[in-house]
Every structure is written in C-alpha cells, then in structure tokens.
Amino acid sequence: MNKQKLFVITLIVIFALIALAGCGQKEATENGDNSTGTSADKIYIGWVAPLTGACANDGQQMQNGAQLAVNEINAAGGINGKQVELVCQDDKSDPKEAANIATKFVSDDRLVAVLGNYNSSCVLSGAPIYNEAKIPMVHVGTSPVITTEHGPYLFRISVTDAFQGEFVTKWLFEEGNKKPAILYENSDYGRGLMDTVEKQVASLGGTVADKETYELGQTKDFTGLLTKIKASGADSIFICGLYTEGALIAKQMQGLGISLPLFGTDGLYEQSLIDLAGQAAEGMKVSGLLLPSDPDQKIQDFVKNYQGAYGKVPGTYATFDYDAMNLLAQVITAAGADRQKIMDYLAKMPEAFVGVSGQVTFDENNDAVRTAMKKLTVKDGKWQIAE
Question: Global pTM?
Fold first, then answer.
C-alpha cells in the first residue's frame, strides 16, 4: 500500500511539474520573452530612466511623455502599420543598474532602439554597452563629458550643459553680477556644469567667489554651505543641480536672510521647484525650452493632451521623451525597424525634426543642434519669460 501511494504521489508531482513548465512557456511567449525576436505586428522600443529614488519625478515624466507619444502613434495606425510598445526599466539613478539594464536591452532581439537615461552618469555607464551591441539610443543626459564619450550609437536630444552653462552665465553678467558662488551636485552632471560655469566666468572677466558641493538626494541641510558662500562676498549663486535641492537651497537662504540672486539651468526648471520652495523661489532665473503658457499650437496641444492623460502640467523632460519617441517614429517610418538603419538615418538626417521642444538636428558628435534657449524666471508664483 505504501509503495502504491508513493507511486501515485510521484505521478502527481511529475504531471504538476509538466503543467507548470507549460504555463511558464505560454507566459514567456505571451509576454514576448522568447528568443524568436521581434513580433510580426509590433515594434519594441526600450525605455530606461529613474522611477524610484531622488530623480523619480523626472523619470516618471519621461515615461509619461514617451507613452503619450506611443499612444498617439498607435491611435493613428502605428508605424508602417505596426503598433509600438515600450519595454520599460527603472535605473534608480544608479550607474551600475543602468549598465545592467543596458546589458539586458542589447540582448533583447525585439528592441530596435532605446530611450533614456536621465542622469548623465547613467548615460555614460551604459554607452559602451549600447555602442558595442550597435543599438541606437536617444537620451537626455546633459553633461559635456558625454560629447566625447557617448560614441556613434547614442544621440542627445537635450541641450548640453556646456551650451546652457555659458548661456546662463552670460545672463548672470548681464544682470550685473560678476562674482558668483557655485553650488554643484557631486556627479558627472554637476561637476561638468560647474566646470563650464567656472570657465565662462573667467572668460568674462569675473571671479568665482566660492565653490561648494553636495550629494544628490542625500544633502538636506545647506546652511553650512550657504554660510560659507555668504562670507565669501559672492554677489550671486549659480546652482549646478536639480530642482529638489534647488528648492531646499532657496528656502534655507530665506531662513538665513541671504538674498543673493539665484541662477541655474533646465535641471531647476520644474513646477515642483515652486511647489517645494513656495515664495522663496520668487525671482529665480533659469534656462529652458518649454513654457506651458506659450501660445504655439504644437505646445498647447501637447500640454492639453498630457494634462488630460496624467492630470499634470508637463515639464522639460516629459517634453524631451515625447519628442524623442516621435523622432524615432519618424526615423523608423523612413528607414525601417532595423537598428543599423535607424542609427545611419539619425547620423545623417536629411531634414530637421520639429518637435514640441523645437527644431532638432544632430552635429558630428550626435549632440542636438538647437538655435536658442528661453530665459525663464519665477514671477508671482509662476514660471514666466524673464523681461
């Protein structure tokens, strides 16, 4: 009897394992996680940016912008009759995680291109992997270092910090400030922007009164750094960082009675900065491409559709990923859903792409060529064109 029971139990276990294996194979096939390559009726695009951690808000905006573009493309019939699907990953603003995801993406035969990353350090960690595998990537990293290190298969749709740093530093001098202090994020992004600003200040005949650094997502108390800056005799502060720290700096300056004018680039240009800093953000000056109140019909349509889908006003990086996805759609329509053909087309675009963030072509370094930035300031609790 015991042997019979054991035999029956063994059979049940065997059949259960076979059934589970079958379910696993079916799930893998339905999810597209098989080794047969691109689905016959879909075009797959990888997407990677931070959805958790210090830059999660920016990453979520990027995902929203890309997905909005995909939804509109699919509603209009897709690309050459094929629907588009994003394969999304969270790099957590961690260069190591970004490299792991790059390795995963390049081995996924379904993917014809990738959108991402947000942090420059993440772009730089993934770049060698994408280049070796020859898969094109359109990213929004802004560090000047990327220009020489990102290789032939990466394309930057955002504006470089070299361009923005010079643009805003000239503006700072036009406002009568010649002795700024620099507060910079200790990252590839922050250090690269700091270097640009420091060089531009020197070229304009000014002096950097003080330089202080902080850690992204970790530094919360800036009072010690701000006290040093106050004692340095600085006439202004250039923040080489992102909006969360920018808001903390503005609020803590107000608490210390420091009234120096604040300048920065589009890393500060978010509605969240005003929400976090409140009245302390008043008068802050930054560079930017998108102003939601701009009457341009393309901008108004995008703002309306984004708000309708996500209930929020889009920021700079939502716009960049929306444009990046539409750029890829234009390229794939013309060149086909092939990694090498996409790369070749992007490298030698026959005409400029016109998106919500403006007109874009790429130079010999695969950096976006843009003609101008907007001067923006916080006035009456809103981002407005600086007069």
Answer: 0.82
